[in-house]
Amino acid sequence: MAILTIGFTPLVAAQSAPPRAETAPATQAAPTSAADLDRLFAELAMPSAEGDDSWRRAQSDILRIWSQSGSAAMDLLHRRGVAALDEGDAVTAIGHLTALVDHAPDFATGYVDRAAAYAAHGDFGPAAADLAQALTLEPRQFTALTQLGAMLEDMGDLPRALAAFQASLKINPHQPEAIDAVARLQQAMDGIAL
């Protein structure tokens, strides 16, 4: 595992775990639990062929699984926090999402979303700590790695931003914003190296 650091906060840039040898039956019900994630990540990592959108379904299913805390009350706090963030109210979002992670400390998506709220508020230290916690809980959290890359790029740390985006793309190679960021950062760093 490669370690990305911001100040004194280590962030683990995880590689995609190898897929399990078992395969899911074709008539399997919609994925609903963490037990389905290995199969979904294997599908997500596959290059897309023309007309094959299986990666889109896998990505959607992963994000849906990640959005479920396992508690209706915690899911409500999560929705309220995300809604506040969408409305530009970072302070309210931080409040709801802090209550969420206090009561559901194993819910990685809560940390990812609170990191976004902290970053929107200009609090990059707490944002980095939340991304580190999310990656500790779910090392394949490609949204956390992409968010980390964007934050590092905004801070001017191009080499570590590039590493974060590349780590995210190893897990989910179908992220246009991360693909564009890698190209942009490589070009910028090539210009700096000249």
Overview of the structural elements:
This protein has 194 residues and is mainly alpha-helical. It has 2 domains: 82 residues, Tetratricopeptide repeat domain (Serine Threonine Protein Phosphatase 5, Tetratricopeptide repeat), CATH 1.25.40.10; 54 residues, Serine Threonine Protein Phosphatase 5, Tetratricopeptide repeat (Alpha Horseshoe), CATH 1.25.40.10. The chain has 9 helices and 2 strands, in the order E-E-H-H-H-H-H-H-H-H-H. The protein has a two-stranded antiparallel ribbon with strand order 1-2. Strand 1 and strand 2 form a beta hairpin. Helix 7 runs antiparallel to helix 8. 36% of the residues are buried. About 13% of the residues have low confidence. Keywords: Repeat, TPR repeat. InterPro entries: TPR-like_helical_dom_sf (IPR011990), TPR_rpt (IPR019734). GO terms for molecular function: Hsp90 protein binding.
H-E order = EEHHHHHHHHH
Distance between the termini: 30 Å
How is the biggest beta sheet arranged?
Answer: 2 strands, antiparallel
- Overall mean pLDDT: 85
Q: In the CATH hierarchy, what is the superfamily of the largest domain?
A: Tetratricopeptide repeat domain
Counted by DSSP, the helix tally is 9
Percent in helix? 55-70%
CATH topology of the largest domain: Serine Threonine Protein Phosphatase 5, Tetratricopeptide repeat
**Can you tell me the CATH class of the largest domain?**
Mainly Alpha
Largest sheet, order of strands side by side? 1-2
Describe the secondary-structure layout.
Elements: E1 2-6, E2 9-13, H1 37-45, H2 54-66, H3 72-86, H4 90-103, H5 108-120, H6 124-137, H7 142-154, H8 158-171, H9 176-193
Antiparallel strand pairs: 1-2
Helix pairs in contact: 1-2, 3-4, 3-5, 4-5, 5-6, 6-7, 7-8, 7-9, 8-9
InterPro entries: TPR-like_helical_dom_sf, TPR_rpt
TPR repeats: 108-141, 142-175
Keywords: Repeat, TPR repeat
